[in-house]
Specification:
mainly beta, 13-stranded mixed sheet, 11-stranded parallel sheet, 33 strands, 1% helix, globular, disordered N terminus
């Protein structure tokens, strides 16, 4: 450990973690305080993290990075990094892999942030976790209101999340997951997502007024190789980007979507917009899908629910959607994922140009 002074004269520490260091870093992280720096030195760092636990709870102001040649290997079903109600967290140039054989469990995550303000993730390489980066307020609650894990609950949504220049490989569920408690003012830009079992990015909130996900820019990303078999399913839906319940003011701009679905998926879309009828079934509004590239999008003709863009209302409605300047001039399919929920509509759709809009189940 090296002690340093920051610009204001406060004492901060720099921790260097070596592969052959015998320190139990699940305890060692308790030494890391606000505004400290943690550097993983070259070599393989192996950690066993139990399910519903995290290796490292990040304090405000912490900076975590890794030198070239450093690889963090995680097993055991838990989360590598988490933060609750923290501010100004930075992770940069970290390579991490989930190495337990078989499918990763629901809590195998690279980073889980809850109720945080200012989270910056850049230049990381993340492989084979269930969800690479999860953002919101909590892990969610069960039918009786109990929290799914004991890592803590944020005071509100996570705000000002920035993920840029990262590579995500073979995530069983999703590379990016916004869910319980909402995420606001987020930029997900210039990332490469290769291989995912459910969503390249899952951008949604939850069905409470406090759980809104809003003001999200998802731009200039490359999303390739979605396949439900990565999550162990033989069928089911898959989306390059999914905009679900309680989300609003989301821009999907300038992304490349390709090779989505494999042979087993039933509903396939580069961008799916839905009120999530099987979950909260709450309104979605003010969505822009512009200048995306679907030119190598796999569209098997024998499936009905396959299109570069899908709009899927339930009892709640999808309002104010603008679809423009995508290439090629992309088909849009509008249908109900649950025909028993038929009150909602797609309202105020702005889709100029040579698009083919296919409507089923009286959803518009």
């Amino acid at each position: 450990m090296v002690l340093l002074l920051n610009h204001s004269g406060a004492l901060m520490a720099r921790f260097e973690v070596y592969p052959d260091d015998l320190v139990n870093w699940s305890d060692g992280w308790k030494q890391v305080k606000e505004s400290d720096t943690v550097v993983f030195k070259p070599g393989r760092h192996r950690f066993v993290v139990p399910e519903k636990k995290c290796l490292a709870r990040l304090p405000s102001g912490v900076y975590v990075t890794a030198e070239p040649g450093s690889v963090i290997e995680v097993s055991g079903g838990g989360t590598l990094f988490c933060a609750v109600n923290a501010r100004e967290i930075r992770l940069e140039s970290i390579r991490a892999e989930y190495v337990t054989p078989g499918l990763p469990g629901n809590y195998a995550q690279f980073l889980d942030v809850r109720g945080c303000l200012g989270v910056d993730v850049r230049g990381c390489d993340v492989r084979r976790f269930n969800t690479a980066i999860k953002s919101g307020r909590s892990a969610g609650t069960g039918a009786q209101g109990q929290l799914f894990d004991g890592l803590g609950e944020g005071f509100g949504p996570t705000r000002f999340l920035h993920v840029q220049g990262c590579n995500f490989f073979d995530c069983a569920l999703s590379a990016i997951g916004f869910k319980s408690g909402g995420t606001q003012n987020a930029i997900i830009a210039d990332n490469t997502i290769i291989g995912y079992g459910g969503y390249g990015a899952n951008i949604e909130g939850e069905g409470t007024p406090q759980g809104i996900t809003s003001d999200v820019l998802f731009c200039d990303n490359r999303i390739i190789g979605g396949d439900t078999r990565l999550r162990g399913d033989t069928n089911g839906p898959i989306f390059g980007a999914y905009l679900g319940e309680h989300c609003r003011k989301v821009q999907v701009f300038g992304n490349h979507f390709g090779s989505i679905g494999g042979k087993s998926a039933t509903t396939i879309a580069g961008v799916g917009v839905s009120t999530s009828p099987s979950q909260g079934d709450t309104p979605v509004s003010d969505i822009a899908i512009c200048q995306n590239d679907f030119s190598v999008f796999d569209r098997p003709t024998e499936r009905r629910r396959v299109a570069p863009i899908a709009l899927m209302p339930g009892n709640a409605s999808i309002r104010r959607v603008r679809i423009v300047d995508n290439k090629p001039a992309s088909d849009v399919i509008i249908f109900r994922p649950d025909t028993s929920k038929s009150s909602g509509r797609v309202e105020f759709l702005d889709c100029p140009g040579p698009y083919m809009v296919r409507v089923s189940d009286d959803a518009m």
